[in-house]
Amino acid sequence: MAKMKALILSGGKGTRLRPITFTSAKQLIPVANKPILFYGIEAIVSAGISDIGIIVGETHEEIKAAVGSGKKWGAKVTYIYQEEPLGLAHAVKIAEPFLKDSRFVMYLGDNIIKDGINALAREFEKNRPNSQILLAHVPNPSQFGVAELKSGRIVCLEEKPKKPRSDLALVGVYMFDSSIFRAVNAIKPSRRNEYEITDAISWLIDNGYTVEPHIIEGWWKDTGKLEDLLEANRIMLEIYEREVKGKVDRYSSVEGRVVVDKGARIIGSVVRGPAIVGSGAVIRDSYIGPFTSIGRRVEITNSEVEHSIVLDDAQIENLGRRMEGSLIGKNAKVKKSDGLPAAYRFMLGDNSEVGVL
Questions:
Q1: Which residue in 9, 76, 207, 253 has the most C-beta neighbors within 10 A?
Q2: What's residue 350's pLDDT?
């Protein structure tokens, strides 16, 4: 029996997280100071799957630089270039030379599943259906692919329906055997000119193949929007235990589950967990509140930051008010000037969003 393989989708443009994703792959935005993509790789390797193909697009160089050969996870990574993001089924189609006749898991690279996929992989190997898809109950099913079940079997799938038939959303993790290649080669592009994986799975159902659901009760998140990223950051930070390796001076207070990486410095400040402060970061005369991730070499001076993600090498100075619910990009500078005349001065990329009090 051929060993299971994995296919991670890490192409796409990340339009909902611009301007951050103009210069960075959305799958490499950190949650609790770890790139989102790494959570997926860890989940796959934990399930006993070590042969991984990664679909890459415009950001292929950055993805390759971050992931490398996969050796640090005990995995072997093969990169598969997709010239245009033409849909999930198209990604499966172009991965056939890598996947061959192996059963495989397809994992969307911007998903985080707190409890991993071990149970899903075991169930798939035990029951041997042609496909098994991960589902979760959601309050807003019209924003997802939606499954309708009868007698424990999937009978219908719809992509972002206006009137959903259930509240069961496709989570973004799918198990397939080689029959999926017949399906992806049989379907036509959708109205948005993409080859939809929901159409391919529907083709399997209509042609008598076995497609089983696996409903998860634990937490998962598609991190495509800012509020989802911040929620993922909050959930993942709660897993961390207190670990202070950096320097905390006697005028500072580090409270609760806080990670201070080696080389970070806390000077005259309060850090209240759950929070993480990356290596080389300097927090001076500031307050870092719960659910905040501070990247490497970040400098925060005379400011308050809470429930936010601050990426590497950013600077925040003299804000005067608390910053919360924010995503600050690499090398970004957020400062309050005391000069006159008093005015706001911004340099913002396309699709930026600023809230001013």
A1: 9
A2: 45
